[in-house]
Amino acid sequence: MAQTPAVLHFSGHHYLRHRLVLSILSGKPVRIDKIRSDDQNPGLRDYEVSLLRLLERVTNGTVIEISVTGTAILLKPGIIAGGSVTHECPLSRSVGYFLEPVIMLAPFAKKPLSLTLKGITTDEHDLSVDIIRTVTLPHLQLFGVSDGLELRIKKRGSAPLGGGEVQFLCPIVKQVKTLDFVDPGRIKRIRGISSPGYALSLLAESTTGAMHSAEAISKPGVPPEEIALLAARSLLAEIRRGGAVDRHHQSLVLLMMVLGSEDVGRCRLGEPTARTIQFLRDMKQAFGTAFKIAPADPSDPESTDLIFSCYGVGYINANRTLS
Amino acid sequence: MDSQTHKAHRPAQSGAKAEKKKESKAKGKEKQHGFNEKAFAPKSGRRADRQGRRTAERDQTRLHVPLVDRTPDDQPPPVIVAIVGPPGVGKTTLMKSLIRRYTKQTLNHIQGPVTVVSGKKKRITFIECNNDLNSMIDIGKIADLVLLMIDGSYGFEMETFEFLNILQSHGFPKVIGVLTHLDLIKKAATLKATKKALKKRFWTEIYQGAKLFYLSGVLNGRYPDTEILNLSRFISVMKFRPLVFRNSHPYMLADRFEDLTPREQVRQSKGKCDRTVTVYGYLRGTNYRLGMRVHVPGVGDLDVNSVQILGDPCPLPDAQSEKRRKLSEKKKLLIHAPMSDVGGVMYDKDAVYINVPGNFTKGGMENPGEGEKMVLDLQDVNSTLEDQVAKSQIRLFGSSSQPLSVEAGPSTLPSDQSEDDEDGSSEDEDEDEEDEENLSGNEDALGSDNEAMSDEDFGEDDEADVDNHGRSAPRTVRRSIHGLPSQDRKRGDVEYADSDSDLGGEDDDDPGPSRRFVHFGDDKVVDIPSDDDVDEDSSENENVPQWKANLSEKAQAAFQDTARSRKRRDWVKLIYNSSAAPEEILGKGQTEEDPSQGPSMDDDDFFTIASKAPANVEETLDQTKEPVNPDDLKEWEDEEVLDSIRNLFITGSSSQAAEGVDENGEPYEDMEGEAGSQAGSDASEGEGEDVADGKRSLNKDAAALAAKKAELKRKFDEQYDEPDAAKADFYTEAKEAIARQQQLNRAEFENVDPEARALIEGYRPGTYVRMELVNVPAEMVENFDPSFPIVVGGLLPAEERFGYVQVRIKRHRWFAKTLKTNDPLIFSLGWRRFQTVPIYSLDDHSIRMRMLKYTPEHMHCYATFYGPAALPNTGFCAFNALGRDTPGFRVSATGVVLDIDRSTRIVKKLKLTGVPFKIFKNTAFIKDMFTSALEVAKFEGANIRTVSGIRGQIKKALPKPDGAFRAAFEDKILMSDIVFLRAWYAIQPRKFYNPVTSLLLSDKEKWQGMRLTGQVRREEGLKTPTNINSIYKPIERPARRFNPLKVPKKLQAALPYASKPKIMKPQHRATYMQKRAVVLEPEEKKALALLQQVRALRKDQVARRREKQEERKAAHRKKVEKEEVKKNEKEKEKRKEYMRLAGMKSKREAEAAEGGRGSKRRKT
């Protein structure tokens, strides 16, 4: 009488990563079809297949079925195993593409994860390893995932040849903490990392620990001053967008809020991005949790900030071993 | 006779005595008051030290890990009090007595849970547990308090201990022992001794000092009122510590059960189709979320189709009606027991029976029961439904003066919709609930009208008022009257807007792309360009050559405009209730697609033809970073734009702190938010925008100041009231953090309407709900028996999945047999009861998990089985059989879940043996270990060993005999050696999972799981098939023959003499002695003859002596035999006498039992 839980059903190749993550976390199988079915080159791309491989190795008992044409996949999630994993990333995407979903999963693994990724470390599509190290990981620390959380950048590599190597170490937790982060504070310092030939990433930190980041990728023939100007201005734009959480990390923060204990978590965000909106919808499908979204200060007509509050599902890391 | 008055005593007013008394009185008074410090003061320093340490230790033992209690304080679910005990012990009597104590009603036939109001803030659900082990397990998982009944005249019974063990493994609820039948013990001394003995045993089982109640005899079918009163007092002061499992799972004890399947469907399938049933009950534990699957123990995992909040059938008295300290007498009558015959209403599985007294006249009844009221209400109807619909007046808002006129049609409201019901929450409940609703409505009608209104109603009214004020503007005209009702209903669904300007924004239904009208006041209409306009504007601007001219202003304005227009959006609705693509919601991407089409926000008008994407277009990647447009960033060249965000920095001025941060960077969103919204809406109502702006900023300043003051005051109060609060220890801090979080939990969704609230946080514990379960096996309905509890337990996402569960297990020391690997075992784990096949194992030096054939004695071991996952640290207990006919203790093992996984790593030892067939120096050829070269290849490099302990390694396969190989050893081995290879073979537990579906059976105690092979053979009378190879044969061991050692001649010659084998030729001739004959001398002959004679004499003597001894022995044997016979006879007589006495005693007892307590006990 082993019934299978309800299957999540999605269409299209968009938002593949977070859908897979939600499926693995919620334990519900996911079927994604119409993956570029109208495209000249239909089906999964090499980096998507590589991502599926990576997820299969990070988990135990995951069954992935890909249709013959590659336009539909069915993923029956196993448990998140963690441990030591090495993965060669294809050169079509940077390691950030692969790290982002893994970061969402790793705190709930059976064993602490030590993931070595090889490939491109910085490109214009995905979060660079610098941003992940300086912004993503502190965002994870808000939820009590801190001891032993580390991203080691061993080698840098850029397109077209790659050759970079990073190691991601993540501890496991029993349950993530509930977030109550409604005060964005005021920017107290701005720091940055510039790695010649790769990129300039800037990070603004507020008095309450709110972070905003921006990055500009160096391109051949463009003087460094212009790159710097671009980065600085994008950072200003980010700061103006408001919120207590970096815009690229809205989904991460919202996911962790949903997975928190059965208490009300609150967070102040700027206007949600398109990814965030879709993520909220998918999250409702996977966990049945909706957010209450209210303007942060209704009296101020100029503020676009919103308070996202939700009631955590009380997600407990069931994969953890007790001994 | 007159009572004689004595002369009263007159105390002395003066003199020494008076003085003394006065003095002592004055002194004594001082001393009497308060704590006498000297009385407990330690006499010596050492004693003081010891006392201090003891107090500190005692304080520490009092501390527990702070746990969050998920039960809401305002409307907690009723406490479940389970009455458990062996049959005939007086459970039903106790339940009746307790119910009578709380409700002044005597129930004749109690079935299922009974809920009563026990105090101003407390309700109790009583449930009686029958003697079935399955029921005991289920009850043990949900009971908050167990009244464990023990027959004092008999003592503890096996069920009691079994139940206690079940409780222990599923989190121990509170237990009160109740001793009954104490009146059967006549002698006072025996009674005292029995009480003491039972108490001692009870205390060792639970904890030292556990409460044990004594109930004496039965009076009028109930226990004595005073004793019950005392018991009820103990129940009411009971405090409940949250149990971990229940604090992480929602659950419900169903107190009502209905089958909703269409009758026709049932008829067509001859009652075999899957049913849709509803169960009713109070939610407990944590919040129940939509989409959560549930497990009904005894039935299986079920899907919940819908959940509806119903009116509380047994409501707590609210503050208005209960101003007094005690519960009023009227409220004491409240009782909710749908499965019993309370109030003349009996809910059967598919019908409702109403019992009425013989004569039934209207008005003649003082206190009609629920069912009688129903019948009376039916009589009250004096107009048809249609008439009432025609007459009914529906007002949209509480303050509307003009009611809506409704043409009678299918969509009209039910007939007896009163004013209360109109704005009430019940809209789509089925008949039963409506009836209940009406009944409660009638009750409420006794009070004032206002009382019936809940807080939500007030809230809605307020909103409606606000709306009404807003509607005097032109906008009201623009809307058609037909659209009103439905529109309004929709809006009631999800709305978080705080001011009516917010409401104005998105209620606009017309798809016009150009302009929106927004009200900020009564008469001023502000024209705000929509997003598209902004985009158009900006695109126009880009065409202008000197676009830099007023770029900053434009950018600023555009940003603020979009900000303003976006702020007015209802994000919840946009995200969750519309199917628009995320990009459309954000208002991007339309410029390139179709600028004339605005963002479609409603489901209704979002029908677009799926356009075929051109194949050659660069696809949008799944990327986190968004492409940056350098032109958009050009605005930052302007100083003014830079200045506009200066306040976001710590270096900027704080005067334009618009982002809700005050000077100190202190958060004050909460207070400011509320005050601000109030102020904001006031302002927008009163004046025009510019005036409002000024006022708003003023308000803001005032609010900021007030907030700051409040914060300072709070800090001062904190420090003043508790000077040492700052250095609170970990425990207090943790408790405070929990309290703070709970405060936030309460506050956050307080003003959200129930539907939206359920969407966000699920259904809270304490609400009375109706759950619709689908695809329920028909047998559950067919064989429904209210005396078996129906528990609906929510499943966490992890618990729906199956996998290998590793547990730490220990055989129960009272269980008679050991447990064997691969024997089925019934687990009670989480909500579930299931049979599965475990494999026992032990950790072998942390290298491997080694299989065990049997569980070890007095030791924990691991067990791994396939089944539904449970969170680590969940306790369980296991049984071999659940039936009542099982002799002995039924709990066979207990333990805790350690790990869940999709694979196992249990191994068992496998020894492969082989024999050498050729031996070189350190090399040998081994055969008979493998059958093919391929197998050998697999094991190349494996370590092997001989019996004598010579170690070696497998080298390579040999071509000749199949499976032979070359091996190297550390020394030369013998041909007689056996070579073996020790390997580990991984085994997987069988994927067998069999839920205990006891509730589906007609005889619920007769559940039969998978049996052991031996059991099946025994029951079927089959012989065990014998394998010819397994038959034991006599072992034949041929004697080993060793060949003589032959040393070659050549070698012999070369050997030194000492090493040379000394081989001599056999003797051919007779030896010296052989050649000679021996002749005796005459003296020698004589001596020899004499010796012979002496020997003969001695022989004869011994023979005679032995004969005599034998004779003596025979005589003795005879004597002993005689005595034995005599003894036996005596023994027989004795036994006869004893049996005679015992028979008389039992006869007497049986007679006494029949006369005294009825025959219930003996029957079972």
From TrEMBL, chain A:
Listed GO MF terms: RNA endonuclease activity
Main location: nucleus
RNA 3'-terminal phosphate cyclase insert domain segment(s): 195-240
Biological-process GO terms, alphabetical: endonucleolytic cleavage of tricistronic rRNA transcript (SSU-rRNA, 5.8S rRNA, LSU-rRNA)
Keyword Nucleus annotated: yes
Localization per Swiss-Prot or TrEMBL: Nucleus, Nucleolus
Highest taxon in the source lineage: Eukaryota
Keyword entries, A-Z: Nucleus, Ribosome biogenesis
Keyword Nucleus recorded: yes
UniProt domain RNA 3'-terminal phosphate cyclase: residue ranges: 9-293
Gene Ontology cellular-component annotations: nucleolus
NCBIfam families, A to Z: 18S_RNA_Rcl1p
Entry-linked SUPFAM superfamilies: EPT/RTPC-like (SSF55205)
Organism of origin: Pycnoporus cinnabarinus (Cinnabar-red polypore)
Family membership: Belongs to the RNA 3'-terminal cyclase family. Type 2 subfamily.
Protein's recorded name: RNA 3'-terminal phosphate cyclase domain-containing protein
A Pfam family reported for this protein in Swiss-Prot or TrEMBL: RTC_insert
Automatic annotation (TrEMBL), chain B:
UniProt-annotated stretches for the region Disordered: 1-79, 400-566, 579-635, 652-694, 1104-1164
SMART domains linked: AARP2CN, DUF663
Listed GO MF terms: ATP binding; GTP binding; GTPase activity; U3 snoRNA binding
Domain Bms1-type G positions: 77-241
Subcellular location: Nucleus, Nucleolus
Keywords: ATP-binding, Coiled coil, GTP-binding, Hydrolase, Nucleotide-binding, Nucleus, Phosphoprotein, Ribosome biogenesis
Compositional bias ranges of the Acidic residues kind: 417-438, 452-465, 495-511, 529-540, 660-673
GO biological process: endonucleolytic cleavage of tricistronic rRNA transcript (SSU-rRNA, 5.8S rRNA, LSU-rRNA); maturation of SSU-rRNA from tricistronic rRNA transcript (SSU-rRNA, 5.8S rRNA, LSU-rRNA)
Catalysed transformations (reactions): GTP + H2O = GDP + phosphate + H(+)
Biased composition (Basic residues): 1-10
Gene3D superfamilies: P-loop containing nucleotide triphosphate hydrolases
Coiled-coil spans in chain: 695-722
Record-linked PROSITE patterns: G_BMS1
One Pfam family this sequence matches: Tsr1_G-like
Family: Belongs to the TRAFAC class translation factor GTPase superfamily. Bms1-like GTPase family. BMS1 subfamily.
Name the UniProt record assigns to this protein: Bms1-type G domain-containing protein
Organism, scientific name: Pycnoporus cinnabarinus
